[in-house]
Amino acid sequence: MTDLSGASNFSGDPSGDLVVRVEGATGRITLNRPDALNALTHAMVQGIREALDQWRDDPRVSCVVVDGTGERAFCGGGDIRFLYDRGRSDPASCRAFWRDEYRLNAAIAHYPKPYVALMRGIVMGGGIGISAHGSHRIVTDNSLLAMPEVSIGFLPDVGGSLLLARAPGALGLYLGLTAARFGAADAIRAGFADRFVPARDLPALVEALVAGEPIDELLEDLATITPPGPLGRRIADIDRIFAADTLKELIARLDAQRADTGDEGARDFASFALDGIRRNAPLSVACAFRTINQAREFKTIEESLRLEYRFAWRSIERGDLYEGIRAAIISRDTPPEWDPASLADVSDELADAMLAPLGKNELTFGR
Predict the structure, then answer these.
(1) What global pTM score does this model have?
(2) What per-residue confidence (pLDDT) applies to 64?
(3) List of the chain residues with pLDDT < 70
(4) pLDDT score for 17
(5) What Å distances lie between residue 136 and 117, 237, 269, 358, CA to CA?
(6) How far apart are CA 190 and CA 185, in angstroms?
(7) Which of 178, 183, 176 is nearest to 232 (CA)?
(8) Could you tell me the sign of the dihedral formed by the alpha carbons of 171, 176, 178, 181, in that order?
(9) pLDDT of residue 367
(10) Which stretch of DSSP H or E encloses residue 18?
(11) Beta-bridge mates of residue 195
């Protein structure tokens, strides 16, 4: 990073994928890969962390504002093509990406200054990690969120297991296991966002922050109430079904509700959820069920990140990540072939092994 007093790239990033500058009273970070949904590269992760570290004690900077270039996406996730291309030949580079990304997520969660994320458009996976742990998470008209990792043979990470665990009732398990997408109102309901600001008012919000006005007072004036999201209509079903003690019991409850002829809406919901779960990688679903439930007992984001990192570490050598990425973005004409092929084939021993401690390779949070 060369000159934080104006628009600049950080050291070692001539691509311009990240634009970092100080404007008035704000430190501004803009993700600048609109053609790739502003997906995070390792260099972008390092640049965000470098900026946050420099601004932490900078008296010029009263708050940090993070956004993405273009209307389509704040951030669609991590750069999964990099993982696919490099994982087999250079697993250490992929593990280093996750290590630095997860440390950044923890740093955002503990940041001492207001961290304002403008969650416009698509916000998924790694995009959740650099927004939903901030102090001020703002959704708008076209916000579309998801933790879709189980659909590519991974599991909710970037501290997502903790966010999902802290969602009201069993909503987090529903979102994590089905990879369902949700809009602004349901993002607030689930605890992934705080306030809704109409898109037309975002420029005025940023301008006022640059001028040094306090974020909380601004939100009192600009934030509005959104109509209830579609998940609200199904929350009773979600809490009743997804609060199961085991994944097998959860699937049985969905099967029973799908067969119930008394309530067409409940039957359709069960079909959607069941089809989603069974479409996703079985090993990932089984491990996500465990990590989200374990995270209910966690007190810190570091505990969740450490558990997620264990799965990430092993997924480079064992698991469905390559097959999931292949089917999602490489050769979309054929569906993924998961191994194990079904939830019934996932043994407790295999799920336990994916989440077992890593010994000397355990994630730490020093610089």
Answers:
(1) 0.94
(2) 98
(3) 1-15, 367
(4) 96
(5) 6, 30, 32, 34
(6) 9
(7) 183
(8) positive
(9) 63
(10) strand 18-23
(11) 138
Q: How many CB atoms lie within 10 A of CB 113?
A: 17
- The DSSP symbol for 260 reads -
Q: Can you spell out the DSSP letters for 123-165?
A: EETHHHHTTTTSSEEEE-TT-EEE--GGGGT----TTHHHHHH
**Residues 264, 265, 268, 270: what is their CA dihedral angle, to the nearest 10 degrees?**
-110
**Residues making up the chain, counted from first to last:** 367
What six digits make up the tokens of 35?
A: 């053609």
Reading the block at residue 174, the tokens are 């529903």
Closest CA to 207 of 326, 118, 144: 118
DSSP state of 168: S
Query: Which positions are annotated as active-site residues?
Result: 78, 126, 149, 157
Contact at 8 Å (CB) between 109 and 159?
yes
Residue 183 vs residues 3, 196, 313: alpha-carbon distances, Å: 37, 11, 31
Hey, what domains does the chain have and what are their CATH numbers?
18-146+184-222 (3.90.226.10), 230-361 (3.90.226.10)
